[in-house]
Amino acid sequence: MERRLVVQPESDLDIQAAAVWYEGQRFGLGARFLNELDQVFRRIVDNPRQFLQVEDEVHRALLGHFPYGVYFYVGEGSINVLAVLHLHRHPEMWKSRN
């Protein structure tokens, strides 16, 4: 059964803020961040249980070249992204979104 990836509005804001910040650091870096995030999203949809379960039903997928984690849970027919957070700045913020 294929699940649909649902990015919560707060998570979308996380993503936009990170992409804008990276793009401000170096031209094209924001696009690289978004591309890598898209690859991680595809891996999550393909096999969500391969990622570390951090608490209760919440899993975390890590980006390879950026210090960000995607916090998500598997729902009935969907995978819900709670947060996309910098691992050193806001690692626990996803808990307030669960």
Task: Describe the protein's architecture and organization.
It is a single chain. The protein has 98 residues and is an alpha+beta fold. Helices cover 36% and strands 30% of the residues. The protein has two helices and five strands; from the N terminus they run E-H-H-E-E-E-E. The longest helix is centred in the middle third of the chain and has 18 residues, at 29-46. It is globular and about 40 Å long. The mean pLDDT is 90.
Biggest β-sheet: count, sense, barrel? 5 strands, mixed
CATH superfamily: RelE-like
Distance between the termini: 24 Å
Number of domains: 1
Describe the strand arrangement of the main beta sheet, using strand numbers. 1-5-4-3-2
SSE run = EHHEEEE
Quick one: how many beta strands?
5
Question: In angstroms, what is the radius of gyration?
Answer: 13 Å
Mean of the pLDDT scores?
90
Helix proportion of residues, in percent?
Answer: 25-40%
Report the top-level CATH class.
Alpha Beta
| CATH topology term | YaeB-like fold
Overall geometry: globular
Structure classification: alpha+beta
Low-confidence stretches: none
Strand content: 25-35%
